[in-house]
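Notebook, p. 212. Picked up where the previous page left off. The plan for this session was modest: take the two constructs that came back from the sequencing core last week, fold each one, and keep the raw output in the notebook itself so nobody has to go hunting through shared drives later. Recording the first one now, exactly as returned: residue sequence, then the structure token string.
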Amino acid sequence: MTSVSLSNFQNIAVDSAPSQKLTVADGNVQTRQASTSIQGRFVSWLALQGNLDTQKAADQGAFRTALLDKYGETLGTQAYDQACNACGFSAGQNHSLTSKQVVTGVHYADEKLNSDPLAPFVSKVEVKAAEPENHDVASVLPANLLEGNFSVPDNEIRQAAVDTLDVITQFISEKYTPEIAEVVEGRVVEAGLFDELLAEQVDPNNSVELRETISIFIDAIWEEAKKVHIESIL
């Protein structure tokens, strides 16, 4: 099933009552009317008892995927869990998707991004890693770049960049070819990106500032990798 964007869920949810049930049909988010007849309620009860309510599970899965696509695995999962809890359910329970759940999940994620500078960094890395050409890049980044409580001495800022370049070029080697990775690494060094990184005068005790700077460095590496890949097939 094609992923449904988070904005599609939001557009319906913000114009609906909090208790409004939502469902995904034909790739679109729609409101879902509950069965009001005794027969309808009985059928619904039987479906739930037999764990056959696959549509609810599909709706929940689509919403969770939309959150992860927008915010990355870590924050997206946190937002989904918070949204379920706000509606009186745990993330593993089968229940109807509601407007309240959508609004709550998005609000939690946005508030987290605005209040926690680390969250935008992790979210950005994970969203980039989810792109097909960047699959699994987050798993090979230096662990300390994704943790919240570290600082590095001034003379190790360059080493943080070197470590980042090493792991990403290794991934580029596996995703494309070792030759492309070698060219990318050479161009990054020749372009003086390390010097530009250090010229930012990053406070070594400010982990958030360091991550933001390294994030720009990561973007530059990936842009160069795409250029080299295109050049190789022309």
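Okay, moving on. Second construct, recorded in the same format:
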Amino acid sequence: MQFDTKIAIVIRSDLQVWQKLNVASFLTSGIAAAFPESIGESYEDATDTKYHALIGQPILIYGADGPALSRALDRALARNVIPAIYTEDMFKTTHDAANREAVRAVARADLNLVGLAMRAERKVIDKIVDGLKFHS
């Protein structure tokens, strides 16, 4: 099945494994919140045990260094794609309001990005992540 949209997450490659997992989780929740139509149906196993619904399309995860993350952010914004972001300062906070304050305190050009997530038309995402490699 091919989707009209694509979901891409870009994570800074030099993070520790726990940080990468944390960033990917938070960024994915941003996509789910912004695009409720991306959520599929609930799951149920053969014994009728119910499970939560998941995002219903593949999520592509790319690795990048800091400059490549900033370039992807600029490309997204130039194409009117509003991304979810995660900055290094957010690792030092303990709740959502503090995360928003950490981002609000820094100009866009000075954000120490560790991750971005975007959902848009396939061709638009392809242009935003052009030159990036899948995370390994």
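Notes on construct two before I forget. The chain has a mean pLDDT of 97.
Flagging for discussion at group meeting.
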